[in-house]
Amino acid sequence: MVARQGSHWNMSTSAPASGPSPAVMGTYGRINVVFDRGEGSWLIAKGGERYLDFGSGIAVNTLGHAHPRLVAALTEQAGKVWHTSNLYRIDGQERLAENLVANTFADKVFFCNSGAEACEGAIKLARRYHFAKGNPERNRVITFEGCFHGRTLATIAAAGNPKHLEGFGPEMPGFDHVATLDVEAARAAVGPETAAIMIEPIQGEGGIRNVPVEVLQGLRALCDEHGILLIIDEVQTGVGRTGKLFAHEWAGITPDVMPIAKGIGGGFPLGAILATEDAAQGMVPGTHGSTFGGNPLAVAVGAEVLDAVLEDGFMDGVQAKSLRLRQELARLQDEHPDMIEDIRGSGLLLGVKLKAPLGDVVNACFDEKLLTVVAGDNVMRLIPPLNVTDEELVDAVNRIGAAFTKLKSA
């Protein structure tokens, strides 16, 4: 998070009386606001102030806040059974897995709770795949500078970001970092110990950087050539966020393994690893597990989210809204060329690369009751719910414009 010089952002370890409780571990630079309830694209603070939510819990609230279908699904399941663990079959888990398999490249699904868990599990799966094939030495994964795959020890090592690695002891081995989003650079990194290549189709934390279609296609061919797995991390880009069910579909390719989370739960913690039958061959009983993964409550909500985004016309609607938002942002760039350098991203995962300091703009937008998300490369993320209205898109851009105007007049 970006520190605010004022009342909204507090990075100190001793919280003021009106600020965050000191009982909560200080790993976040939280904004000093508490939201009491949500309605669609809006969050309402305890004092009654309404905020237009263009962060969606960092690409999580696919259908906005308190969507009636999700509330009904969760409430119905809560009256039945909350938890049994994976010692037993879970009907809702099997139904959601079958729906994911029917609508993707995958043959197998493993359920977990978060994107970090899904990415960590994908790394384990890739290593286990080669072990099962009699090649245990093939255990290294190629990743790309600017990537983000989670906050576990393995996933921060996968990304190699010094800021995330600092203070956590020896960096976990097994990862080779490529400096550019380039097929030939990846080819040069492939060796006899390579197990997989792991990439986000759009780097979210890295600054909403689209991976070119030809790069994804080239990496698919490179993996096929060397008998290694292609892991496409769709934690942030999946479940309709780019106007396709998953972003890799724009490139006309399929991965071998795909970690997902965020949007699939619509706000309830849910993640999954999707894989082909071949890629998952090493994942036999005892090789991986999760106490809460595929919990009956989580999969009940996830099933409703997936059904909603698969409805006829939903993806077309996301693409149309993306075009409208881009048009509005282009208008804003024309009005404030000294503030906006570039518009990036796909679907309703867009980034505004700023000429002004990112923290100042995000804070000014907050003052205009618009919630946004920071990213690398001085980029502000705009990630509204996928069912956002056209009127709300225009409203959001107008609020950014008002923030720009106030910053320039300060």
Report the helical percentage.
Answer: 25-40%
What's the end-to-end separation, in Å? 23 Å
Largest sheet: 4 strands, mixed
Can you name the CATH architecture of the largest domain? 3-Layer(aba) Sandwich
Please write out the topology.
Elements: E1 35-39, E2 42-45, E3 50-53, H1 56-59, H2 68-78, H3 91-102, E4 108-112, H4 115-132, E5 140-144, H5 153-159, H6 162-165, E6 175-178, H7 183-189, E7 194-199, E8 202-203, E9 209-210, H8 213-226, E10 229-232, E11 257-260, E12 271-275, H9 296-309, H10 314-335, E13 340-346, E14 349-354, H11 358-367, E15 370-371, E16 373-375, E17 379-382, H12 390-409
Parallel strand pairs: 3-15, 5-6, 5-7, 7-10
Antiparallel strand pairs: 1-2, 2-3, 4-12, 8-9, 11-12, 13-14, 14-17, 16-17
How would you characterize this protein structure?
- This protein is of the alpha/beta class.
- The protein has 12 helices and 17 strands.
- The chain has a 4-stranded mixed β-sheet with strand order 1-2-3-15. It has a 4-stranded parallel β-sheet with strand order 6-5-7-10, with helices on both faces.
- It is globular.
- 46% of the residues are buried.
The gist of it:
The chain has 410 residues and is an alpha/beta fold. The protein has helices at residues 56-59, 68-78, 91-102, 115-132, 153-159, 162-165, 183-189, 213-226, 296-309, 314-335, 358-367, 390-409, and strands at residues 35-39, 42-45, 50-53, 108-112, 140-144, 175-178, 194-199, 202-203, 209-210, 229-232, 257-260, 271-275, 340-346, 349-354, 370-371, 373-375, 379-382. A hairpin with a 2-residue loop joins strand 1 (35-39) and strand 2 (42-45).
